[in-house]
């Protein structure tokens, strides 16, 4: 099993990122009699008739009519858009910066800032993107052009959605809807609201917002966004265990997706088909669709579609007893899952870092303002020092108190963000990244003094069935109770972290293999024998445990994790609810 297990909603985000390129359409231009009008026509054709747009750019460069300074900058902006559309993000970034910094056109600068924001996010330069988003938010009241303002609101909604700020993402989408330029469709803002609800796990297939967005985008003849909404609906059907509805929907929209040739949609279609076939018990077609999805990706791609496709392949091979193939597919699934967890963590940390910087600057500005006020008070009081010495001392003490309180608030805020960055929000134990960092540090110290340690990997058996049967509230209760049970058997010096989903890791400090097996088995028995209830509903749960020891595996965390995961995988295959330890040279022992 992997050291992580967490689903992301990145494919919906990627589809939403494409929205930044989708704006209004107008009749195609055929000649350059008026350069300004020709450029406006070209801009309006970018996505409704992109081949015509590209022809018009080629035409104006070929004929090189006499352009004013403003028209030249408009052309440079369109060139930058086309560069980004073709996937040259580095080239388009330089072009957008040139327009922003030197055009002198506030509208073009605002549009370029909106697209630059999408560019940075697509390249996973999240801290730069969130810093730009904060600047755009501050400058937004000064943007008067309706289309530029709409583009900025759209991209701000997308960035906040990336950061997991669902309510703020919905707010900016609603602001976009309220200020939509004349002639623009409600498809864009409503799609953004659905994407935010979906990523925030607040959407069901029956939600009226989803059907409203689908109807709006279909009526507006926006096939890319309409297909995005259909695929969201298909994903929700799968989540709600209605694979027959998913399959019927996918067969209905497949011709349109194939016609548009939009890569994220094509890959999502294949992956959802594989998942639906698997749930329907059609192993052969599930395997065929999953292989087709995998074949579409590049070797270095990391995305949720490939993760889901590899998971289907793993389940099919496992079901049919092909252990070697199952393990190979599982390793690829785990790599995809790890990549997405890292990306989600990078987004969250970048957002928190930028927000902390903003908060720090605000507090420093307020503290400086109060210090200036103190100085002005002192200057006024110096002239009357003899008659107002007591008043002066009192005011000075009050001012210093204010400064101390503000500095204390700043420090408390910094400590709070530090705690949030280290702890899992649900269970309160170490998160994945901090567990890995601390484990590596402890192992290095133990290696120097020839100490012993054991790495335990715990996975709750059939946890998905608990969520599907009793709901996520019961799932959260089970996770918290499992953590509490584990903590009863651990020492203060032991490391305990949530690695993702229902999987946990424990590093037993100064512990031999025999002691580690005993502790692991006691934890397994305690989890399996402790009743778990909420609101009168009870559920039985068990755990599979894999363990690796420095006695046989050495002090490299990567190897310990791999061998503990391998032992855990063997425990799962052997029937679950058991402890298996790696004893070196490929040997395993069951507690």
Structural account:
This protein has 24 helices and eight strands. It has 591 residues and is of the alpha+beta class. Helix 6 runs parallel beside helix 8, helix 16 packs antiparallel against helix 17 and helix 17 runs antiparallel to helix 18. It is globular and about 85 Å long. A six-stranded mixed sheet has the order 2-3-1-6-7-8.
Q: How much is the radius of gyration in Å? A: 29 Å
Q: What is the SS-derived class?
A: alpha+beta
Number of helices: 24
How do the strands line up in the largest sheet? 2-3-1-6-7-8
Shape: globular
How far the N terminus sits from the C terminus, by CA atoms, comes to: 19 Å
Low-confidence stretches: 1-29, 358-369
What is the total tally of β strands? Answer: 8
Overall average pLDDT: 81
User: Beta-sheet strand percentage?
Assistant: 5-15%
* Helix content class: 55-70%
Sheet bearing the most strands, described? Answer: 6 strands, mixed
Short summary of the structure?
With 591 residues, the chain is α+β, with helices and mostly antiparallel strands.
Secondary-structure topology with pairs:
Elements: H1 10-17, H2 35-44, H3 50-63, H4 69-85, H5 89-102, H6 106-122, H7 126-139, H8 146-162, H9 166-178, H10 187-199, H11 208-219, H12 223-239, H13 243-260, H14 263-280, H15 283-296, H16 304-319, H17 323-382, H18 389-422, H19 432-448, E1 453-460, H20 463-470, H21 472-488, E2 495-500, E3 503-509, H22 513-529, E4 532-534, E5 537-539, E6 543-549, H23 550-553, H24 557-573, E7 579-584, E8 587-590
Parallel strand pairs: 6-7
Antiparallel strand pairs: 1-3, 1-6, 2-3, 4-5, 7-8
Helix pairs in contact: 1-8, 1-10, 2-3, 2-4, 4-5, 4-6, 5-6, 6-7, 6-8, 7-8, 7-17, 8-9, 8-10, 9-10, 10-11, 10-12, 11-12, 12-13, 12-14, 13-14, 14-15, 14-16, 15-16, 16-17, 17-18, 20-21
């Amino acid at each position: 099993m992997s050291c992580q297990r967490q689903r992301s909603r990145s494919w919906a985000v990627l589809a939403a990122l494409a929205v930044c390129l989708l704006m209004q359409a107008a009749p195609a231009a055929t000649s350059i009699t008026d350069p300004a009008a020709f450029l406006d026509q070209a801009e309006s054709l970018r996505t409704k008739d992109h081949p015509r747009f590209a022809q018009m750019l080629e035409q104006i460069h070929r004929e090189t009519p006499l352009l004013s300074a403003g028209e030249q900058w408009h052309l440079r902006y369109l060139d930058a858009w086309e560069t980004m559309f073709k996937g040259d993000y580095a080239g388009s970034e330089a072009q957008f910066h040139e327009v922003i910094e030197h055009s002198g056109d506030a509208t073009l600068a605002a549009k370029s800032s909106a697209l630059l924001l999408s560019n940075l996010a697509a390249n996973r330069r999240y801290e730069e993107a969130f810093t730009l988003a904060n600047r755009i938010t501050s400058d937004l009241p000064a943007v008067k052009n309706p289309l530029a303002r709409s583009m900025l609101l759209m991209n701000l909604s997308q960035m906040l959605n990336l950061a997991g700020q669902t309510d703020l993402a919905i707010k900016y989408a609603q602001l976009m809807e309220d200020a939509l330029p004349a002639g623009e469709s409600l498809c864009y803002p409503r799609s953004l609201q659905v994407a935010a609800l979906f990523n925030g796990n607040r959407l069901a297939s029956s939600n009226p917002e989803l059907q409203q967005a689908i109807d709006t985008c279909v009526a507006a003849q926006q096939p890319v966004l309409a297909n995005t909404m259909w695929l969201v609906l298909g994903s929700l059907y799968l989540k709600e265990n209605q694979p027959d509805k998913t399959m019927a929907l996918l067969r209905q929209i497949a011709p349109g997706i194939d016609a548009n040739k939009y890569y994220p949609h094509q890959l999502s279609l294949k992956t959802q088909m594989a998942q639906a076939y698997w749930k329907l018990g059609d192993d052969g077609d599930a395997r065929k669709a999953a292989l087709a999805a995998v074949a579409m990706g590049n070797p270095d791609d990391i995305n949720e579609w490939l993760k889901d496709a590899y998971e289907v392949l793993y389940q099919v091979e496992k079901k049919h007893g092909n252990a070697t193939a199952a393990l190979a597919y599982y390793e690829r699934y785990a790599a995809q899952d790890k990549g997405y967890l890292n990306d989600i963590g990078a987004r969250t940390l970048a957002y928190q870092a930028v927000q902390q910087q903003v908060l720090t600057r605000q507090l420093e500005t307020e503290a400086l303002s109060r210090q200036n006020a103190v100085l002005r008070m002192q200057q006024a009081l110096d002239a009357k020092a003899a008659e107002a010495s007591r008043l002066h001392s009192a005011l000075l003490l009050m001012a210093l108190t204010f400064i101390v309180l503000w500095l204390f608030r700043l420090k408390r805020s910094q400590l709070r963000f530090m705690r949030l960055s280290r702890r899992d929000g649900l269970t309160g134990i170490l998160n994945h990244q901090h567990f890995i960092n601390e484990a590596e540090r402890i192992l290095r110290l133990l290696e120097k003094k020839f100490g012993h340690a054991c790495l335990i990997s715990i996975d709750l058996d059939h946890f998905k069935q608990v969520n599907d049967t009793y709901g996520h509230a019961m799932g959260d209760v089970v996770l918290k109770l499992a953590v509490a049970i584990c903590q009863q058997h651990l020492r203060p010096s032991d490391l305990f972290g949530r690695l993702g989903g229902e999987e946990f890791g424990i590093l037993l400090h100064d512990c031999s293999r025999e002691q580690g097996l005993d502790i692991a088995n006691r934890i397994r028995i305690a989890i399996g024998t402790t009743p778990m209830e909420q609101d009168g509903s009870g559920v039985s749960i068990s755990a599979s445990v894999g363990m690796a020891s420095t006695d046989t595996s050495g002090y490299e965390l990567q190897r310990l994790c791999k061998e503990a995961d391998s032992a855990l995988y063997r425990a799962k295959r052997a029937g679950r609810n058991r402890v298996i330890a790696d004893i070196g040279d490929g040997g395993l022992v069951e507690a």
